[in-house]
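Subject — a protein and its fold
Fields — amino acid sequence, structure tokens
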Amino acid sequence: MTDIISLARRLSQASSYALRIEPLAHRIPDLMESNDQLRPLWDTWRQQAAPNVAVEKVFTKEQLRILRSFFEHLYFASDAFARSVGKRP
């Protein structure tokens, strides 16, 4: 499981929200696998990720846009964001 979470953390590096969503890294694989648009991207990342391979080298610009939108949504839908704007305890 740790390897999967590590992959998710590395994948999230494509986003400017990477540090903010890091506590949610354990949820990224399940969320991506349950989404028809994200599942192929997660499968590609699992197959092609290597320690020295950047996310930008694996995906097209359009795929990166989708990933970044997902991570942005993940951040703004999270409890961490809600607490940062004072909406949740």
